[in-house]
Design a protein that fits this description.
With 189 residues, the protein is of the alpha/beta class. The longest helix is centred in the C-terminal third of the chain and has 17 residues. The mean pLDDT is 82. It is 24% helix and 29% strand. The two termini are 33 Å apart. The chain has a seven-stranded mixed sheet with strand order 2-3-4-1-5-6-7, sandwiched between helices. It is built from five helices and seven strands.
């Protein structure tokens, strides 16, 4: 980059959701670079602290953040920040959200209640978001209308259903967020 070239514009997207819903997986699926992960092994110290119900054989957890990057063009770079899911790490969300243009909530229909905190987090800060239902191994027990009602989502909040391991689904989630952001009224300055 020469001194006459401007640095690309940066857009920040925050990816939140409950423990074990696929936040790290989504960042890894769509990032153009090997994502920065702060995964640590679950230990006996987490017994009784972390709710492992419904997370199968999960043996690691994000303890700070996941970070990925997508270069849209030489003028635009998207940075993805994945939050830790356990309640004991939620205090970090307030720092991670600074400067975020919008957010993604990842949810699992087998444990929708783990998504409430993420939805409340975005709504209480007026941060636009989309909801991505992660269908682990094609497992989804609810219709979109049932999910929307269970999560008490406003009708304008986009809801997508797929597998976050699938790069095209991850791309579709991010594009839905962009479409959602572009559909919002521009605040008078």
């Amino acid at each position: 980059m020469t001194s006459s070239q401007a640095a690309p514009a940066a857009v920040k997207i925050l990816i939140a959701g409950g423990f074990g819903v696929g936040k790290t997986t989504l960042v890894g699926a769509v990032s153009e670079v090997a994502p920065l992960r702060t995964e640590e092994y679950l230990t006996k110290a987490s017994i009784g602290v972390d709710d492992l119900a419904g997370v199968g054989q999960k043996d690691t957890t994000t303890v700070a953040l996941d970070f990925g990057r997508i270069t849209v063009s030489p003028e635009l770079v998207v940075y993805l920040f994945g939050t830790p899911g356990q309640e004991r790490f939620w205090f970090m969300w307030n720092d991670l959200v600074n400067g975020a243009l919008g957010g993604v909530v990842i949810a699992d229909t087998r444990r929708l209640e783990t998504s409430f905190a993420s939805i409340d987090f975005y709504e209480s800060r007026d941060i636009p978001f989309v909801v991505a239902i992660n269908c682990f191994h094609g497992h989804n027990t609810r219709t979109p209308d049932e999910i929307r009602a269970a999560l008490d989502l406003d009708p304008h909040v986009p809801l997508l259903i797929g597998d976050v391991r699938d790069r095209p689904f991850g791309r579709d989630v991010l594009l839905a967020l962009v479409d959602h952001l572009m559909s919002l009224p521009v605040a008078a300055g």
